[in-house]
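Deliverable D5.2: sample structural annotation.
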Amino acid sequence: MHVDDIEVLSNPVIGKPLENIAHRKIDGNVLTSTQAMLVAPHIRGLIQFEAAGTYVFYIQSNDGVKAKIGGR
């Protein structure tokens, strides 16, 4: 199954809020999960900018990422 095929999680587990999403661990659990494998986070949130302008976002993954900002 691919991440694009997942519409809604059938049994989501809500984790604690994340201050950042910098996750560079070789061993251990993924983000706030209690497991290290077979984790597919669905992260929603608010980004607040102090000024209008152009911003660059950088995402790195070895399993795939689907990101939307402003519904696009």
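Annotation notes: The chain has no helices and no strands. The chain has a mean pLDDT of 73.
The annotation will be released with the project's public dataset once the embargo ends.
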